[in-house]
Amino acid sequence: xxxxxxxxxxxxxxxxxxxxxxxxxxxxxxxxxxxxxxxxxxxxxxxxxxxxxxxxxxxxxxxxxxxxxxxxxxxxxxxxxxxxxxxxxxxxxxxxxxxxxxxxxxxxxxxxxxxxxxxxxxxxxxxxxxxxxxxxxxxxxxxxxxxxxxxxxxxxxxxxxxxxxxxxxxxxxxxxxxxxxxxxxxxxxxxxxxxxxxxxxxxxxxxxxxxxxxxxxxxxxxxxxxxxxxxxxxxxxxxxxxxxxxxxxxxxxxxxxxxxxxxxxxxxxxxxxxxxxxxxxxxxxxxxxxxxxxxxxxxxxxxxxxxxxxxxxxxxxxxxxxxxxxxxxxxxxxxxxxxxxxxxxxxxxxxxxxxxxxxxxxxxxxxxxxxxxxxxxxxxxxxxxxxxxxxxxx
Amino acid sequence: xxxxxxxxxxxxxxxxxxxxxxxxxxxxxxxxxxxxxxxxxxxxxxxxxxxxxxxxxxxxxxxxxxxxxxxxxxxxxxxxxxxxxxxxxxxxxxxxxxxxxxxxxxxxxxxxxxxxxxxxxxxxxxxxxxxxxxxxxxxxxxxxxxxxxxxxxxxxxxxxxxxxxxxxxxxxxxxxxxxxxxxxxxxxxxxxxxxxxxxxxxxxxxxxxxxxxxxxxxxxxxxxxxxxxxxxxxxxxxxxxxxxxxxxxxxxxxxxxxxxxxxxxxxxxxxxxxxxxxxxxxxxxxxxxxxxxxxxxxxxxxxxxxxxxxxxxxxxxxxxxxxxxxxxxxxxxxxxxxxxxxxxxxxxxxxxxxxxxxxxxxxxxxxxxxxxxxxxxxx
Lengths: 394, 379
Known about the structure:
The complex is a heterodimer. Chain A is built from 17 helices and no strands. Chain A is mainly α. Chain B is α+β, with helices and mostly antiparallel strands. In chain B, strand 5 and strand 6 form a beta hairpin.
């Protein structure tokens, strides 16, 4: 058995400057969040939703990739699974970030005012679903389901580092089979609760898939970014090669095309039917300056990364992967901004309020990663598929 | 038949052997060589030093051609050739073209890839190759791994090549070919062959025509057209008077209909004395009268009854309704004139109901009063 021969982990502690940057961003971000909540809690809460759903995207996407690797029997992701497992820890900040949102629920959600709902026939009919009580219960269920699965996946995986027990992989496969349908339902309802219900009169049956696609795309981009940076700096085993990079690139390319497919389908169905109760949502995003944001999303979330990743060699080039991943992460943030902020303001707004949560998010991603990288193996050394994953060849 | 040397080959038994052999041949500096395996082998591209295929550019070009072609075609159809307003949208509604553009782009990209591969890389219509029908090909397409170093390689030297391949552990053999074999092309445009094709197409067309249109012909389904019933307004032999439609019994009166006893030519003034307007002067009556007046009377008599409509000069001019004669007529005389007509004016009893005619009379009276208002009306 040569399972551990090629696994060389020279350094486990991330470079101090990266960790410092992470802590710096977290602290400055937290300070800005505090300032923005003190000066304009209404606007801060809307930005909070963006940061909250952004981190949820990465965290839930990460749990999804853990489950996907197990259920698909994927081999090439095994050496990088620990990176994904570290990112799933962002579920904790997601839960924490929801607290200020629950405190400002009335600022955010029109439907949370019972007096308004009573006068509005449509909202009255929706109230069995859209009311504060069931909203809160649902959110707790999502967090518990995601968290529970995540921590069991992770515990089994960490146990395997020591015990090399193959049964743990089998256990995780069974868990993954249960988790994936649960995720499909919970992430759709999560997006409906937190993003779509900002405009409670509006509805789109594709919205859940739209957010889900953005979620797994962004999560993959963060994973890819970490993998590229870590292997460039020599934190992984030797042998992260173009076959691995190509797999990341191809999956990223496929998902961004899928995102475009879903985004366009949602737009086209509403545009074609031309029903006033659906179109107003897009009209609000096509006037008073929002049209530039809309066009920017089409370019940054699809066309530019599409051509950055379309050719085979471009998917194998780590520098190009890093650039595309960073661009797509930004595009997803912009996408969430575009989903949330038109409810807050008729025109696009940008100031330190909008910077607070991105800084906090990036800071938290780095800090949580650094803390865990210090404590645990950065490669799942006990996984039976590890050697095959390292030797992976297209 | 002159035999020429095509290549020196070597057969190996394991994938590892072929990988090493390919690497050795590449390192020896040969460029015109090829490897044949029964299934794809990881790492062979690198071992052979193959460059990235150019086929992707054919795919890209075909895809772009498909996308641009389809969106241009859809735009031309929707804007120029057959413009139709659909759902109140502009003719050039590009989002509607996106799905079909996307699909045609994918379709052409796929077809272009396959077609480009066959035409550019396999040099279609060339169908012969020296390796065809050789035992070497039979072996490497079942369970052996083979390498061929071609004689056209710049540094080809039969002895050296044999030695090189032997050192890698292969079973060395040579492939010969004749120009005759290589240049053989099926004669596609042979007149006899073309004639055969024409004959087959004619036979199938004629056979199809006869089979579907003659043997299996069924008369069209038209039973609903011919039905054992009489149409309205048509003649029949069934009744003595030859009419399909029956007349009501003489003297019968329709429900709610009050017959008008006086005929055309009776003095309107004298008849009018026996008729009394049953309506009251209400707003509803006047509104009804105004509506009917404007519909039926105003085209000739004018909107205010002055006899000044646009018809003036095209017919005998219709009289004004404000003359002393009409003003002094009793209501019944106006009613009688409306009902049966007078001079060129036809009777209106079939267009305007009895009640409506009385309402028109009320309205005419109102107009007359307006044109001949008394001092007291202004107070």
